[in-house]
Amino acid sequence: MSFREKSALVTLVFLVIVALAYAGQALSHPPAALVAATVGLVGAMALFTAIMIASHVVLVIAVGAKEARRPADERDRMVKLASRRNAGLVGVAGLWLILMLAVTAASHLTIAYAALGLFVLAEIVMYGSELVYYRRGL
Amino acid sequence: MPAKTPITNTIRTLRFHKDEMTQQELADRIGVTRQTIIAIEQGRYSPSLEAAFKIARVFGVGLEEVFQYEA
Known about the structure:
Chain A is mainly α. In chain A, 87% of the residues lie in helices and 0% in strands. Chain A has one domain (3-136). By secondary structure, chain B is mainly alpha-helical.
Protein backbone atom coordinates (compact mmCIF):
# COMPACT_ATOMS: atom_id res chain seq x y z
CA MET A 1 0.00 0.00 0.00
CA SER A 2 1.30 3.41 -0.89
CA PHE A 3 1.22 6.30 1.56
CA ARG A 4 -1.70 7.86 -0.31
CA GLU A 5 -3.67 4.65 -0.12
CA LYS A 6 -3.00 4.33 3.61
CA SER A 7 -3.94 7.98 4.06
CA ALA A 8 -7.24 7.40 2.27
CA LEU A 9 -7.95 4.34 4.42
CA VAL A 10 -7.20 6.15 7.68
CA THR A 11 -9.26 9.17 6.64
CA LEU A 12 -12.20 6.98 5.61
CA VAL A 13 -12.19 4.98 8.82
CA PHE A 14 -12.08 7.99 11.13
CA LEU A 15 -14.55 9.93 8.99
CA VAL A 16 -17.10 7.15 9.36
CA ILE A 17 -16.44 6.82 13.10
CA VAL A 18 -16.71 10.54 13.83
CA ALA A 19 -19.71 10.96 11.52
CA LEU A 20 -21.58 8.08 13.13
CA ALA A 21 -20.71 9.35 16.61
CA TYR A 22 -21.93 12.84 15.77
CA ALA A 23 -25.07 11.53 14.09
CA GLY A 24 -25.81 9.33 17.09
CA GLN A 25 -25.33 12.22 19.46
CA ALA A 26 -27.40 14.62 17.35
CA LEU A 27 -30.27 12.15 16.93
CA SER A 28 -30.39 10.96 20.53
CA HIS A 29 -30.02 14.42 22.01
CA PRO A 30 -31.37 16.76 19.33
CA PRO A 31 -30.26 20.33 20.02
CA ALA A 32 -32.98 22.80 20.81
CA ALA A 33 -31.60 25.49 18.56
CA LEU A 34 -29.41 25.92 15.52
CA VAL A 35 -26.72 27.56 17.66
CA ALA A 36 -26.35 24.45 19.81
CA ALA A 37 -26.23 22.30 16.72
CA THR A 38 -23.51 24.53 15.28
CA VAL A 39 -21.44 24.25 18.44
CA GLY A 40 -21.74 20.47 18.30
CA LEU A 41 -20.77 20.45 14.66
CA VAL A 42 -17.71 22.65 15.21
CA GLY A 43 -16.68 20.36 18.04
CA ALA A 44 -16.99 17.30 15.83
CA MET A 45 -14.98 18.98 13.10
CA ALA A 46 -12.28 19.98 15.57
CA LEU A 47 -12.14 16.42 16.88
CA PHE A 48 -11.89 15.03 13.35
CA THR A 49 -9.13 17.48 12.47
CA ALA A 50 -7.16 16.55 15.57
CA ILE A 51 -7.54 12.85 14.79
CA MET A 52 -6.43 13.43 11.20
CA ILE A 53 -3.33 15.32 12.29
CA ALA A 54 -2.36 12.72 14.87
CA SER A 55 -3.04 9.73 12.62
CA HIS A 56 -1.13 11.20 9.71
CA VAL A 57 1.85 12.04 11.90
CA VAL A 58 1.89 8.38 12.93
CA LEU A 59 1.51 7.36 9.29
CA VAL A 60 4.41 9.55 8.15
CA ILE A 61 6.63 8.15 10.91
CA ALA A 62 5.62 4.62 9.91
CA VAL A 63 6.21 4.96 6.15
CA GLY A 64 9.05 7.48 6.28
CA ALA A 65 9.12 11.12 5.31
CA LYS A 66 10.58 10.44 1.87
CA GLU A 67 7.68 8.21 0.83
CA ALA A 68 5.15 10.59 2.39
CA ARG A 69 6.58 13.60 0.55
CA ARG A 70 6.68 11.83 -2.80
CA PRO A 71 4.61 13.83 -5.30
CA ALA A 72 1.54 12.29 -6.86
CA ASP A 73 2.23 10.38 -10.06
CA GLU A 74 -0.14 9.96 -13.00
CA ARG A 75 -1.99 7.04 -11.43
CA ASP A 76 -2.47 8.94 -8.16
CA ARG A 77 -3.90 11.87 -10.11
CA MET A 78 -6.23 9.63 -12.12
CA VAL A 79 -7.48 7.92 -8.96
CA LYS A 80 -8.10 11.28 -7.32
CA LEU A 81 -9.95 12.60 -10.38
CA ALA A 82 -12.18 9.54 -10.69
CA SER A 83 -12.89 9.54 -6.95
CA ARG A 84 -13.82 13.22 -6.95
CA ARG A 85 -16.11 12.59 -9.89
CA ASN A 86 -17.93 9.91 -7.89
CA ALA A 87 -18.23 12.25 -4.91
CA GLY A 88 -19.57 14.95 -7.18
CA LEU A 89 -22.23 12.64 -8.54
CA VAL A 90 -23.35 11.82 -5.00
CA GLY A 91 -23.38 15.52 -4.18
CA VAL A 92 -25.54 16.42 -7.15
CA ALA A 93 -27.95 13.56 -6.51
CA GLY A 94 -28.20 14.48 -2.84
CA LEU A 95 -28.84 18.10 -3.69
CA TRP A 96 -32.25 17.11 -4.99
CA LEU A 97 -33.02 15.63 -1.58
CA ILE A 98 -32.06 18.92 0.07
CA LEU A 99 -34.24 20.85 -2.35
CA MET A 100 -37.17 18.54 -1.65
CA LEU A 101 -36.70 19.06 2.07
CA ALA A 102 -36.66 22.79 1.55
CA VAL A 103 -39.86 22.89 -0.48
CA THR A 104 -41.66 20.57 1.95
CA ALA A 105 -41.07 23.16 4.67
CA ALA A 106 -38.72 21.01 6.72
CA SER A 107 -37.09 22.79 9.65
CA HIS A 108 -33.83 24.67 9.20
CA LEU A 109 -32.10 22.14 11.42
CA THR A 110 -33.34 19.21 9.35
CA ILE A 111 -32.13 20.84 6.15
CA ALA A 112 -28.79 21.68 7.77
CA TYR A 113 -28.33 18.09 8.98
CA ALA A 114 -29.28 16.77 5.56
CA ALA A 115 -26.73 19.05 3.91
CA LEU A 116 -24.07 18.00 6.38
CA GLY A 117 -24.92 14.35 5.91
CA LEU A 118 -24.68 14.79 2.15
CA PHE A 119 -21.26 16.40 2.46
CA VAL A 120 -19.99 13.60 4.70
CA LEU A 121 -21.47 10.95 2.42
CA ALA A 122 -19.74 12.51 -0.59
CA GLU A 123 -16.42 12.47 1.29
CA ILE A 124 -16.96 8.83 2.26
CA VAL A 125 -17.67 7.97 -1.37
CA MET A 126 -14.54 9.84 -2.46
CA TYR A 127 -12.16 8.09 -0.07
CA GLY A 128 -13.91 4.75 -0.56
CA SER A 129 -13.55 5.15 -4.32
CA GLU A 130 -9.85 5.88 -3.93
CA LEU A 131 -9.35 2.63 -2.07
CA VAL A 132 -11.34 0.65 -4.62
CA TYR A 133 -9.46 2.18 -7.56
CA TYR A 134 -6.08 1.63 -5.95
CA ARG A 135 -6.91 -2.03 -5.22
CA ARG A 136 -9.09 -2.93 -8.18
CA GLY A 137 -7.63 -0.65 -10.78
CA LEU A 138 -9.00 2.12 -12.96
CA MET B 1 -11.84 -9.32 -9.01
CA PRO B 2 -9.49 -6.60 -10.23
CA ALA B 3 -10.49 -4.71 -13.34
CA LYS B 4 -8.26 -5.81 -16.22
CA THR B 5 -7.42 -3.55 -19.12
CA PRO B 6 -7.39 -4.89 -22.70
CA ILE B 7 -3.72 -3.91 -22.84
CA THR B 8 -1.20 -6.55 -21.81
CA ASN B 9 2.51 -6.04 -21.37
CA THR B 10 5.80 -7.84 -21.08
CA ILE B 11 7.38 -5.47 -18.59
CA ARG B 12 8.15 -8.17 -16.04
CA THR B 13 10.03 -10.22 -18.64
CA LEU B 14 11.84 -7.18 -19.99
CA ARG B 15 12.89 -6.17 -16.47
CA PHE B 16 14.29 -9.63 -15.87
CA HIS B 17 16.34 -9.49 -19.04
CA LYS B 18 17.57 -5.99 -18.20
CA ASP B 19 19.92 -7.17 -15.45
CA GLU B 20 16.94 -8.09 -13.28
CA MET B 21 15.85 -4.49 -12.92
CA THR B 22 13.62 -3.98 -9.92
CA GLN B 23 10.19 -2.40 -10.04
CA GLN B 24 11.50 0.48 -7.94
CA GLU B 25 14.34 1.12 -10.39
CA LEU B 26 11.95 1.20 -13.32
CA ALA B 27 9.57 3.44 -11.39
CA ASP B 28 12.37 5.88 -10.58
CA ARG B 29 13.49 6.00 -14.20
CA ILE B 30 10.08 6.86 -15.61
CA GLY B 31 8.90 9.02 -12.72
CA VAL B 32 6.10 6.98 -11.19
CA THR B 33 5.71 4.98 -8.00
CA ARG B 34 6.56 1.34 -7.53
CA GLN B 35 2.87 0.69 -6.89
CA THR B 36 2.07 2.14 -10.31
CA ILE B 37 4.57 -0.20 -11.96
CA ILE B 38 2.97 -3.10 -10.09
CA ALA B 39 -0.48 -2.00 -11.25
CA ILE B 40 0.74 -1.72 -14.85
CA GLU B 41 2.34 -5.17 -14.77
CA GLN B 42 -0.82 -6.69 -13.31
CA GLY B 43 -3.01 -5.01 -15.90
CA ARG B 44 -4.86 -2.92 -13.33
CA TYR B 45 -3.72 0.36 -14.83
CA SER B 46 -3.08 1.54 -18.38
CA PRO B 47 -0.20 4.02 -18.36
CA SER B 48 -0.33 7.29 -20.22
CA LEU B 49 1.24 7.42 -23.66
CA GLU B 50 4.15 9.36 -22.24
CA ALA B 51 4.80 6.79 -19.52
CA ALA B 52 4.47 3.97 -22.04
CA PHE B 53 7.07 5.55 -24.32
CA LYS B 54 9.38 6.13 -21.37
CA ILE B 55 9.11 2.47 -20.38
CA ALA B 56 9.90 1.35 -23.90
CA ARG B 57 12.86 3.71 -24.02
CA VAL B 58 14.24 2.31 -20.74
CA PHE B 59 14.30 -1.15 -22.28
CA GLY B 60 15.49 0.10 -25.65
CA VAL B 61 12.64 -1.54 -27.54
CA GLY B 62 9.62 -0.41 -29.50
CA LEU B 63 6.31 0.33 -27.87
CA GLU B 64 4.61 -2.74 -29.29
CA GLU B 65 7.27 -4.97 -27.82
CA VAL B 66 6.28 -3.73 -24.40
CA PHE B 67 2.50 -3.33 -24.76
CA GLN B 68 0.00 -5.41 -26.72
CA TYR B 69 -3.63 -4.55 -27.32
CA GLU B 70 -6.16 -7.36 -27.12
CA ALA B 71 -9.44 -6.19 -28.63
